[in-house]
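Practice record 12: protein with LLP.
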Amino acid sequence: MTLADIFPSLLSGTPPRLDSAIWPRETHYDEEGRITVGGVALADIADQYGTPTYVLDENEVRDRCRAYRKYFPEAETIYAGKALLTRAVAEWVAEEGLSIDVCSAGELAVALSAWVDPRRVVLHGNGKPFGELETAIGSGVGRIVLDSLSEITLVSALATTPQRVLLRVTPDIDVHGHPAVRTGVADQKFGFPIGSHMLDEAVERIVRQPNLEFAGLHCHIGSQISDTFPYGEAVRRMIAAMARIRDEHGVTLTDLDLGGGHAVAYRSGDAEMNLPELADIIEDSLDAACARHGFPRPRIALEPGRAIVARAGVTLYRVLTVKHIDDGQTYVTVDGGMCDNPRVALYGARYDAVVANRHPTGPHMTATIAGRYCEAGDILARDVRLPVDLRPGEVLAVPCTGAYHHSLASSYNGVGRPPIVAVREGHTRELVRRETLEDLMRRDVGR
Ligand code: LLP
């Protein structure tokens, strides 16, 4: 039993703990009681760059890349750029030895403009527009992940030299996540169901095309997966499929890409993927499955997106209003919301938030953080403990917002998207500037 159990009122004065599971490693309180990330006070960033602003800790991104290199020394780690792609991020991950997965000509352009070697780029997508395929092949992307029968013909027709390809397979593994991110099950838009005639047909077609170099199979079983078991199962099923392709089509594939989906903690206590355990289960299932089918060990690739950048990101908002509804909730409205973080509305995601401009030591209240957009569903976080004397103008920080925030952002209600400001060793650097009213008006050419 702790003192707080005996005197619950003590809790009200307990300042929020900055849990290293959800904040960048270099997060502290400075001597003035303000939160600092990467050696910079978040309140200073809010003053200098305005709010809302996405803060991104460069060292945290690099550390996460290094963790993958450390625990999967023989595998290729391919950063899934859809989580967050800017030129600087592309540069950092490439410098740390990662390849990059892109799913559009836009993402490809960002990666190439950061001088990422095109041979280290993997192109994804269940529907790749003709022009984008042409651009990707023309720029020499290393691998294209084929996702439909018609695409096989198209890529083969467009390639002037043999194009390395992977075939996307759904291994029929259900990780029971949110329906929007359950990509391992058979009946959905991605890939070819394992064991299906369509998969056989796809293999047959690829093998017949001299312009395609059939490197291997790909699967991506879902998102926010903290359990390692489904990855072991994916390895077993995919190796069995590769052995079958060898036996029936006479090709021995060398590459197995296991996709991404490794969970991070958004709030204290959330489960996250344990990388050493994941490495062990992949190794063990590979050994066993390859021995069972007499199949040569393929090169493994992993495609983490969220696990590389989520925890490196912190979003800053300013409090606009604090409203206490009689017999209802306390709404703290901030100057951002569903446009910079649509994950709450889309997936029911849950976040924590703390005051960043001071170290609150007085009593706390439970509040709902509301966005400023014109929808009742524009809520950023519920049941958040904030100081009772919270005032308009104070800075709130929401941790673990590096992945699928900026990349999913919109300019709904005519509000420009926030900037991304990188922090490192006490310095800031703007990576993406704020979208201005002028930017928004420039697209409106109809007058
Ligand atoms: N590889 C493929 C083929 C993918 O489709 C994805 C994610 C990844 C890798 C990376 O997954 P990660 O490691 O980041 O979970 N907007 C949703 C997530 C959508 C994921 C789409 N594909 C969210 O905010 O939770």
